[in-house]
Amino acid sequence: MDKTDFKKKFLSLSWKRWLERPFDLFVSSLFVGGTKKETFEKLGIDDLSVRAILNQNGVWYESAEVWDDMKARSLVYMQNHKMNEVSSILEDFYSKSKIRLKELSSSSISSLEKLQEFNDIFTNSTMFVWLTHGIEEYYNDELTREVPKYVSSDIDAFIGDASFPSKKNAHSLMEEMMREGISSSEIAKRYTWLKCRDGFCDGFNESEIDSMREGLKEEEEVPSVNVPLELQDLFDEVRELVYFRTARTDVFYHLLYLARPILKEVASHYGLSFQELKHYTVQDLLLGDLKQYGPEFSLAAYEGEMFVFSKRIVEEKKINSANFVKGKVAYKGKVIGRVKIVKLVSEIYKVEKGDVLVTQMTFPSFLPAMIRACAFVTDEGGITCHAAIVAREMKKPCVIGTKTATRLFKDEDLVEVDAVNGIVRKVSEN
Question: Tens digit of pLDDT for each residue in 194-211?
Answer without folding.
Answer: 988 777 888 889 998 998
